[in-house]
Amino acid sequence: MYVRELHARYRLRRLSGWSLPLGPLSGPQDAARIFVTLLRDEVVEVGGLLCLSTRQHVLAYHELSRGTVDGTIMHPRDIFKAALLANASAVILGHNHPSGDVTPSPDDLAITGRIAAAGVLMGIELADHVIVSADGKYWSFKESGRLSIAPSSQGGL
Questions:
Q1: Are 120 and 70 in contact (CB under 8 A)?
Q2: What's the rounded Cα separation, in Å, for the pair 36 and 141?
Q3: Could you tell me the CA-to-CA distances from 52 to 62, 63, 77, 99, 105 in Å, in that order?
Q4: Taking every pair of C-alpha atoms in the chain, what is the biggest distance, in angstroms?
């Protein structure tokens, strides 16, 4: 029963006016649209996670953390716990910048590299990290070429 309760906590949160995308995500703009929808009304930084199937379908959304007006904490342990419970093969990390400036901070750059490296070890690719603002602007680590670790090989032994 405990495993079922844990699994239920990591299922996709359905919000009024928003539904699960029907097809695979086609790029950073799709992930940004989801994160803008989920985080646009937040007055503090909120970190979230999209868990993806091998075909880039969204399996689950998990809110990782709530912070302050200019920061939040996201730990690889929490990210990959949610990803494993959702049986994800890849994840997209996202958070909002309430200031409206989607430029990544030095902390954003550092944590993205750390999570990408952990994903290589776990066999769960960090497909992107997207920073969004309430007005729909976004910044994608993938689009900018700033994902610091290449995806790992998913092959067996």
A1: no
A2: 16
A3: 12, 15, 17, 29, 26
A4: 47
32 vs 48: CA distance, rounded Å? 12
pLDDT at 7: 44
Burial class (CB in 10 A: 0-12, 13-18, 19+), 95: buried
The DSSP result for 56-118, as a single string, is S-EEEEEEEEE-BTTB----HHHHHHHHHHTT-SEEEEEEE-TTS--PPPHHHHHHHHHHHHH
pLDDT tens string 47-70: 999 999 999 999 989 999 999 999
22-26, 73-77, 152-156: least confident range: 152-156
Whether the Cβ atoms of residue 147 and residue 117 lie closer than 8 Å to each other:
no
Phi, psi of 83 (to 5 degrees): -60, -40
Token pair for 62? 């998990």
- What mean pLDDT comes out for the span 63-79? 93
Backbone φ and ψ of 28, nearest 5° = -55, -30
Look at residues 146, 64, 76, 134 and name the one whose alpha carbon lies nearest to residue 102.
134
